[in-house]
Amino acid sequence: MARRSKKVDFLENLSAVTEQMQDKDREANLRREKERGELSTLPLERIRNRESNTRALNMEHVKSLKESISTLGLIEPLVVDQEKVLLAGGHRLAAIALLLDTEPDTFEKHFQNSAIPVRVMPFTAEDEPNRALQVEVAENEYRRDYTPAEVKGIAERLIEAGYKDVKGRPKKGEKVLMPALSTVVGKNRRTIQRYLHGESPKSRTDVHLFLKKAKKSLESWQKQHNQNTLANQELSKELPQILSLLDDAIKQDSASE
Which residues does the UniProt record annotate as the domain ParB-like N-terminal (predicted)? Predict the structure, then answer.
């Protein structure tokens, strides 16, 4: 039987490392969803503000959110603890309250019987203030990744509601599409334009994240994995060059943004 080539062993080991990375990503996603609490609804008046908020409200952002919620509803639920104290979503809560004050019929359309979508965390902010802060930071940094089709669908609904893709300075009172889309999707104008033109988000953001994860996982393997087999020894010899190539790819991808 012909001896297996070093290249075949190397590629099989690299494939195994990649599969392990993907398994870890799937486990992390499931764990993150579980840690984000159970989905439920609460009447608006029963959601309690924290005694001390870490973020001051930006009223312009509140108004923008109110406009998007008026058209699309609440896309991302608020986060509360076991005592119904708000942990994350202060701007969304203020926008919902503003919608109730200014457009009660629209509020009722999206939130029948004042039922506000929430994620209920399995602890209280009073008992675990550090954990509450961690949830707030994580939720503020978290952004759902929309597909190009989803972004186009949101854009169409906004256009139907009177938003316009304005070039240059908008007229007074004119509803502008791109800022509204940016508020909803949580992405910058260039990224949204790519989505609207049908480019997969994996062509930029997801690829960039994957490259960084690949580099980190390979570095971890380099430090921890034993080298008691010929294949592992060969992989270790090739790793510095692979890590260098990954580093170059990450830098080039960042520069293209």
Answer: 40-141
Angle between helix axes 6-35 and 205-224 (nearest 10 degrees) is 110
DSSP state string for 73-140:
--SS-EEE-TT-BEEE-HHHHHHHHHHHHH-HHHHHHHSGGGEEEEEE-SS-TTT-HHHHHHHHHHHH
Neighbours of 186 (CB within 10 A): 16
Residue written as token pair 């203020």: 94
Question: Under 8 Å CB-to-CB from 247, ≥6 apart: which residues?
Answer: 215
Q: How far is CA 236 from CA 10, 17, 24, 160, 244, in A?
A: 9, 12, 22, 57, 13
Q: Which residues pair with 80 in a beta bridge?
A: 86, 120
pTM of the model: 0.58
Select the more confidently predicted residue: 16 or 93: 93
Sort strands 38-43 and 86-88 into parallel, antiparallel or unpaired: unpaired
Domain ranges of the chain: 35-142, 144-201, 204-256
Tens digit of pLDDT for each residue in 56-110?
Answer: 788 888 998 998 899 889 988 999 999 999 998 888 999 999 999 999 999 999 9
Cβ partners under 8 Å of residue 81, min gap 6: 87, 120, 121, 123, 124, 125, 132
Instruction: Please give the Cα distance from 118 to 113 (Å, whole number).
Output: 15
d(CA 136, CA 89): 8
